């Protein structure tokens, strides 16, 4: 892989966004349903689960999974009531 200016910029941005406590995709995926339930309860999942929120800001794949789960739960909720 050739290191272009764009790739280097993205790598530098990723390094700058790191925090002392981080989780990987597997751990984030395990916590997505809880994160979504907090959101659906009208509370702030970002405050309740900041490490998961941080991962979702950085990881497009996990963010897509979360958004799909949240949409499905929102669609299911009226049917359960």
What does this structure look like?
- There is one protein chain.
- This protein is an all-alpha fold and 81 residues long.
- The protein has one domain.
- Helix content is 77%, strand content 0%.
- It contains five helices and no strands.
- Helix 2 packs across helix 4, helix 2 packs parallel to helix 5 and helix 4 crosses helix 5.
- The chain is elongated and about 50 Å long.
- The mean pLDDT is 89.
Supply database-style keywords.
81 residues; mainly alpha; 5 helices; 77% helix; elongated
Q: Short summary of the structure?
A:
This protein is mainly alpha-helical and 81 residues long. The protein is built from five helices and no strands.
Summarize the topology.
Layout: H1 5-16, H2 25-40, H3 45-48, H4 50-58, H5 60-80
Strand content: under 5%
Annotation, overall tally of beta strands: 0
Based on Cα principal axes, name the global outline: elongated
**What is the overall number of helices?**
5
The SSE string, one letter per element, is HHHHH
- Mean of pLDDT: 89
Low-confidence stretches: none
| Computed CA radius of gyration, to the nearest angstrom | 16 Å
What's the helical proportion of residues?
Answer: over 70%
Structural class: mainly alpha
**How many structural domains in the coordinates?**
1
Largest sheet: none
Distance between the termini: 53 Å
């Amino acid at each position: 892989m050739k290191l272009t200016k764009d790739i280097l910029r993205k790598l530098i941005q990723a390094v700058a966004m790191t925090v002392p406590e981080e989780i990987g995709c597997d751990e984030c995926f395990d916590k997505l349903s809880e994160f979504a339930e907090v959101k659906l309860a009208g509370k702030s999942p970002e405050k309740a689960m900041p490490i998961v929120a941080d991962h979702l800001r950085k990881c497009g794949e996990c963010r897509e999974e979360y958004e799909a789960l949240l949409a499905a739960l929102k669609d299911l909720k009226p049917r359960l009531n």
